[in-house]
UniProtKB/TrEMBL annotation:
SUPFAM superfamilies per record: Nucleotidyltransferase
PANTHER family xrefs: GRPB DOMAIN PROTEIN (AFU_ORTHOLOGUE AFUA_1G01530) (PTHR34822), GRPB FAMILY PROTEIN (PTHR34822:SF1)
Gene3D superfamilies in alphabetical order: Beta Polymerase, domain 2 (3.30.460.10)
Protein name, as recorded: GrpB family protein
One Pfam match: GrpB
Length: 177
């Protein structure tokens, strides 16, 4: 699993046109996770660009899994690692308000699992941003154009790509109720 993690971490950023099957890929993994952890996850939501119809995206399904408390997220990590996920323990040690895992196949990411406190700020902000993009085609178009420019500028640096999008996200969230 370490090889998949290493390859996936260093893969280039490539955006592809929106694919309708992303919604079904989310639903299948959501049902699998809820079957494995029926009491641990309060709710699981599809977020990120693959959750916005028409939005070009990296073909990786972002999943937001809400837990009652972050202490339960820590307890889930080992079990998730035994059920198809991998992660960087060092990266997660730096995160206090969320946990991050990924699924990969053939060295390519397929899913990101972000575990956060259900109803907390991470939960609310990520869903508010998704919903704002879904509700405003103009806003979604502006974001898609920004992402396209940034994917070229930061093709081999995922952290820089993500950081460069953060100002746009913050401005959108500042305008949301």
């Amino acid at each position: 699993m370490g090889d998949d993690l290493d390859r996936a971490i260093h893969e280039d950023i490539v955006l592809v046109p929106h694919r309708p099957e992303w919604a079904m890929a989310f639903e299948r993994e959501k049902e699998r996770l809820l079957g494995l952890y029926p009491r641990e996850f309060v709710q699981i939501e599809h977020f990120g660009s693959t959750a916005v119809p028409g939005m070009p995206a990296k073909p990786i399904i972002d999943m937001l899994a809400g837990v009652a408390a972050m202490s339960s997220a820590d307890a889930l990590l080992e079990s998730l690692l035994s059920n198809g996920y991998t992660t960087s323990r060092e990266f997660n040690a730096m995160l206090h308000d969320r946990k991050w895992l990924m699924r990969a196949r053939d060295g390519r990411r397929t899913h990101h699992l972000h575990i956060v406190e259900y109803g907390g700020m991470q939960w609310r902000d990520r869903l508010r941003f998704r919903d704002a993009l879904r509700q405003s085609p103009g806003l979604a178009q502006s974001y898609a154009e920004r992402k396209a420019r940034l994917a070229v500028a930061h093709r081999g640096d995922r952290e820089a790509y993500t950081d460069a999008k953060s100002g746009f996200v913050a401005r959108v969230l500042a305008l949301q109720p």
